[in-house]
Design brief:
single chain; 143 residues; mainly alpha; 6 helices; membrane; transmembrane helix; transmembrane
């Protein structure tokens, strides 16, 4: 396992993409200026920090897969509490059905999490910041 892997992931998030582009091209004359959008540097930093916190609330990929796997196996674990004679579709069919139910539960949880993140992002959105961020992200230096 590469020890530097988490560092790459941290520096590749939304907040760092915007701030790194501002640091890299901020002195160019045609780069979007914060003053033109009525934004101060600290306000932008706070806005980006809050937006990144909302984007990160779902957790890392490893965390999502671990939770999804546990939720997928929960119906199988509950099913193991019943005797084999109680299975309607036989042992194999009932186990496959339990795994399918677990997958559906995991997908529902993932969908609810995505909906919560989308709702919080919409509630957090501020037009002047979003306009400036979009201008920064789409900026291409002239050569």
């Amino acid at each position: 396992m590469n020890i530097r892997e988490p560092e790459k992931q941290i520096l590749n998030d939304f907040e760092h993409k915007v701030t790194n582009k501002i640091k890299l091209y901020g002195n160019y004359p045609d780069f979007p200026k914060m003053e033109d959008y009525g934004i101060e540097g600290m306000e932008l930093d706070d806005y980006l920090f809050d937006k990144q916190a909302i984007l990160d609330m779902g957790g890392s990929s490893r965390n999502k897969l671990t939770v999804g796997g546990i939720i997928t196996l929960l119906p199988v674990i509950v099913l193991s509490a019943f005797p084999d004679s109680a299975y309607i579709y036989g042992k194999m069919g009932t186990t496959v059905l339990a795994i399918a139910v677990g997958l559906m539960l995991a997908l529902c949880l993932y969908a609810v999490l995505k909906a919560i993140i989308r709702f919080r992002l919409a509630r957090h959105a501020d037009l002047k910041f979003e306009t400036y961020i979009k201008a920064v992200l789409f900026y291409q230096p002239r050569q």
